[in-house]
Amino acid sequence: MSSAKPEEPAVTAATSNGIDIPDFELPYPDKPELITQNLLRLFDLVPDERVKFVMKNLVTHLHAFVNETSVTTEEWMKTIEFLTKVGQTCTPIRQEFILFSDVMGVSALVDAINNPPVKGATSSSVLGPFFTEDAPEIELGESIASEGKGKYMYVEGTVRSTDGTPVPGAVIETWETDESGFYDTQYKERDHPDCRGRLRTDKDGKYGYRAITPVAYPIPGDGPVGQLLLAFRRHNLRPNHLHLMVEAPGFRKLVTSLYPDGDPFLATDAVFGVKKDLVVKLEDVNDDAEARKRGFPKGGSFKLLKFDITLVPLDEAKAAFEEFSKLRAKNAAA
């Protein structure tokens, strides 16, 4: 008996998606306002109330923008061409759309709305386009960077809840650039992750690891987002920083970054990620014996970054979000 698969029947005609014509009538869109009205009416067919709400608002504001600015056909085609290039620039390890969202301030805005401040808690910041899922597991005290990637830095602190209770077993993902200002994903020859790692706090909620001193760096300028910043006369620099993502059962996930003070780009960060309480001081430790004790192969001096992280329990996070949402709605109605 033959094991060959039967041939697929040839497609002889285009087919519909199988959805019926709506059971209500729409006027012919002979006027600009009818285009908007008809599309909003069609969104009434969407069964998911949240999707319906979001899409109706998107259409309302997008169409209002087109009307208010009288966008020309040429301008809209250039917009489509730009978005096409953004998509074409994306790869499995390069996210140009996240970069676009970042430089337009949308990532920071979404983050701020979804993570309202809670007294005493560590502030969140933008994820950025360089997070990867393949960070190696490291033990406390080990290094996230291979030797020669930059000047030595040691990071340590305690992860606690808002009530001061230590959080043991919290998972910390951390990543940064090398001293040249490049993430490992920006190199053509990336045979393993570097300058990134995943560790867990000990039974007392403490954490510590070796890293390198962060440097300011330009976000990628070789793609459409880089060209956009040039057209807007905006610099593409980010202040020096270290990324952290902290998760523990029963707590709101924290995505944040720590920004050593003194950097000239703190206030004009290209992606609007800096918050005042995330600006930190680095201590100079000029002690060869201490450097070797902490595991730095060449000894000498190193920078010390001490930072305690405070996570928000889920119930507190929910209450803060609800209160923040009410406040925003009240301000919008005023």
Task: Explain what you see.
Its cofactor is Fe(3+). Keywords: Dioxygenase, Iron, Metal-binding, Oxidoreductase. GO terms for molecular function: catechol 1,2-dioxygenase activity; ferric iron binding. Residues 128-311 form the Intradiol ring-cleavage dioxygenases domain. This is Aromatic compound dioxygenase. With 334 residues, the protein is an alpha/beta fold. It has two domains: 32-85, no CATH class; 102-318, Protocatechuate 3,4-Dioxygenase, subunit A (Sandwich), CATH 2.60.130. It contains eight helices and twelve strands. It has helices spanning 32-42, 49-69, 73-89, 96-103, 106-114, 224-231, 288-293, 314-333, and strands at 152-161, 171-175, 196-200, 206-212, 217-218, 237-238, 242-247, 254-260, 279-280, 283-285, 302-306, 309-311. The strands form three sheets. Strands 1, 4, 10, 11 and 12 form a five-stranded mixed β-sheet that branches. Strands 3-2-7-8-9 form a five-stranded mixed β-sheet, with no helix packed on it. Strands 5-6 form a two-stranded antiparallel sheet. A hairpin with a 6-residue loop joins strand 7 and strand 8. The longest helix has 21 residues, at 49-69. It is globular, with a radius of gyration of 25 Å. The model has no long low-confidence stretch (mean pLDDT 96).
